[in-house]
């Protein structure tokens, strides 16, 4: 008579230990490339939504910086009597600073509130959450490109010839994006936990406008304070952009290379720390929004 044998259990079953990854691998930056089409889609969507149901459309990309330039010229040029570096016309000197400032401030504002404005997709599908603030930052490049054409027209009108510094413009724009993304990652993650950040961010952005060399030159800041002043990443962005487009450097101040180096170190530090903090808080986003 045949009897059915019972399978003998394994005496040494294989044990798999799951541990969280550490270091740069924990950021999963490779996923950004894998989901690059989603980055493109969200960036394009932000651009379309920005001007949807507006009468003037993309013309606001020109109107806004022109208005800011006029206000700064009246306040710092006419009332305060602050001369432009190198004898340049005041409107041109200040408009060349408004452009990178507008790229930075617009990217920071969009990235800071991006997690809440995209709450509908956060709870439905999986994708690297880092894509949301990244696409918000990249969408500002379109407005920057449109307003840059106005600067080119102003250079031609006042007869300012381009210099070899123009070749450094991509690096200056990259520094502005890195600075905005670094701060944007911090604020976007904090905004999910504390909605007060949404009220603080516009105030902070306006404060940065006046403590950055947008309406004036860095040379107006006492030299003994300029090391501290350069820790504002916008300082390196604005002064390097002015140098690249107008060929001017602030007089009676630290060397431009020193200003840019300090600002760049701070910007990179903000980006790296922001990436790790954003990644750490990512698991709570779907529950908190």
Describe this structure in a few short sentences:
The chain is an all-alpha fold and 289 residues long.
Protein model, in words:
With 289 residues, the protein is mainly alpha-helical. Helices cover 64% and strands 0% of the residues. It is built from 14 helices and no strands. α2 crosses α7 and α4 packs antiparallel against α8. The protein is globular and about 75 Å long.
Which structural category do the helix and sheet elements fall into? Answer: mainly alpha
Nearest-angstrom radius of gyration?
24 Å
Sheet with the most strands, sense and barrel status: none
**Beta strand count:** 0
Content of β-strand? under 5%
How far is the N terminus from the C terminus? 67 Å
Summarize the helices and strands and which ones pair or pack:
Elements lengths: L29 H5 L1 H15 L9 H20 L10 H23 L1 H4 L1 H4 L8 H8 L1 H18 L11 H25 L3 H14 L15 H4 L3 H14 L9 H26 L3 H4 L1
Which properties best describe this structure?
289 residues; mainly alpha; 14 helices; globular
